[in-house]
């Protein structure tokens, strides 16, 4: 555990926090893009240990959370069909659709299975040639190589009863959308280490040059995060807007080239709708023409016309854009809890609402009467 514990070292973290406090001279708003970073920040209490001039804003980097409600409804409809085995990562099973979630379909007799890899779903298709096996391909660039490989292998092996319901999104376009929004206040970014491990960070150099905003590639442990925040604050105080790498043990500028190659062979960029944010041009992945026979939306045309309105009570869209904190939602910890979630941000292991609830920040949402 040595190489993990050293990045959780309390003394090193405190020294970095002290350097941040000694460096900052004015208020700055820094967005951690990744939901995994949000959970680590709240678990370690970093958000409460930073000087008051530094405010962390939670970004849209939770793939489950930004999956559109209509995609959940499409998944639910497909999963309820006869002769379908619907497979997904565990987080997606509890995300509420308009009327029900995938667990409800399973409880009603649907063949819904949790898998740890799309290649497991492909094996199910090989073992069940009389069934249609569908994998819910959700995620950022991090999970795209494995999802692409499952489709590539299905075609190479001639497995024709396998398809993917694609809801892939990419990070650079949403950063651009946030920086161009008149409502969002972000001065700098902690870039998502897992995504950068696959894609590198050369794309972020283009964004930093265009918008003049610091972007520091950051890991997920307290030392990583404190170091990333310090590097971002130093750039802001010095008037710089560059890309720096605080996660060099994992991330290189060029990233995982073989992973990028399989993504580009199977997927192409397309417009993609983000839950709570809306349509962002060329912000997602869709299957290329050569692989569109494996597109579940084409294979099940009855789901193509499904459109859905978001719950008026849930403000997850504002949370994903960094415009609100979870405890500012009127439903937080009341109508919306992990046991009865209104939105995906309370369900996902990377959701900001789930993090606030799990690590006690829900106390901020209680009224004085409730506290007494």
Please name the defining characteristics of this protein.
six-stranded mixed beta sheet, single chain, 2 domains, 17 helices, alpha/beta, five-stranded parallel beta sheet, disordered C terminus
Description:
The protein has 372 residues and is α/β, with parallel strands linked by helices. The protein is built from 17 helices and eleven strands. It folds into two domains: 1-311, 3-Layer(aba) Sandwich (Rossmann fold); 316-371, no CATH class. Residues 365-372 have low confidence and may be disordered.
Helix content: 25-40%
Element-by-element helix/strand order: HHEHHEHEHEHEHEHEHHEHEHEEHHHH
**Count of separate structural domains:** 2
Kindly provide the radius of gyration, computed on alpha-carbon positions and rounded to a whole number of angstroms: 21 Å
Judged by helices, strands and strand pairing, the structural class is alpha/beta
